[in-house]
Amino acid sequence: MRKHWLKLFVAVTMACSTASVQADLVNGDVEGGTGLADIPGWLSWGPSGALEGSYAHSGAQCVRLWWDDTGLFQNFSVIGGQTYTASGYLYTPTSERYTWDVGNNTYASLKLEWYQADGVTSAGPGIETTRFTPDDLADVWAFRSISGAAPASATIGRMVLAIGGSGPASGTVAFDSLSAVAAVPEPSTMAFLVTSLVGLPMLLRRRKA
After folding, report:
1. 91 domain residue, yes or no
2. Is 187 left (phi over 0), alpha (psi -120 to 50) or beta?
3. Alpha-carbon span 171 to 108, nearest angstrom
4. Which residue, of 85, 128, 163, 170, is most buried by count of CB atoms within 10 Å of its CB?
5. Number of folded domains in the chain?
6. Is pLDDT larger for residue 16 or for residue 129?
7. First to last CA, the chain
8. CB proximity list for 68: less than 8 A, separation 6 or greater
9. Is residue 201 part of a domain?
10. pLDDT at 11
């Protein structure tokens, strides 16, 4: 009986302690490569973007986009029901200020999308950070973050960097210092779990008595 409870305790503790590791992005600082198409760990679409080394938030370079036909994404493993947080920094330089056009609804954001094992079939609606727009300050890296639970059928999470709405009148938006991690139980939650697992066998023995 003691061995049974010990195995249960170890299994639950390991599951909690490894949750944050599973969702780590590869190369969240978008280092390496000569263009969007060959940044290690990332996939891209479209021609309207480039690597930029003059105003990176971390490391030697960041990614910048200037139209809504281009973006980057990266897949990572998820567990249905687990909460994940995506975050990163967005920026527009004064020299290439991101601007509106008449009737324009342009914005940039980070998105979390959910997919089934084939990587094509959606597992449910995605979530999006607060939008970065031409109203945001120039020359200031703006932090954006979003959290949500993966749908039950999801096994793949996808972090997407893109300009949405319609293309800007002019200017560029940069992305850097990107992260996607699983929520880790608070210390109080872990303490409650340990206490419960340790005390449960004693409670069962008392009831049998």
Report:
1. yes
2. alpha
3. 12
4. 163
5. 1
6. 129
7. 16
8. 106, 162, 163, 164, 165, 166, 167
9. no
10. 43
Distances (CA, A) of 177 to 25, 95, 161: 11, 22, 12
Positive or negative, the CA dihedral 52, 54, 59, 65 is: negative
124 backbone dihedrals φ, ψ, rounded to 5°: 150, 175
- The edge-to-edge listing of strands for the beta sheet with 107-115 is 43-45, 71-77, 156-164, 107-115, 122-128
CATH number of the domain within which 64 lies: 2.60.120.260
Beta carbons within 10 angstroms of residue 128's beta carbon: 19
Per-residue pLDDT reduced to its tens digit, 54-68 = 999 999 999 999 999
What DSSP string describes 30-76? --S-SSGGG-TT-EEESSSEEEE-SS-SSSS-EEEE-STT-EEEEEE
Which long-range contacts does 52-57 make (Cβ < 8 Å, 24+ apart)?
52/174, 55/91, 55/93, 55/139, 55/174, 56/29, 56/176, 57/89, 57/91, 57/141, 57/174, 57/176, 57/177
In this prediction, residues 69-74 reach a mean pLDDT of 97
Give the tens place of pLDDT for each residue, 12-31: 444 444 444 445 789 999 99
Distance CA 110, CA 173 (A): 12
Distance in angstroms (rounded) separating the CA atoms of residues 37 and 76 = 19
Residue 206 lies in a domain: no
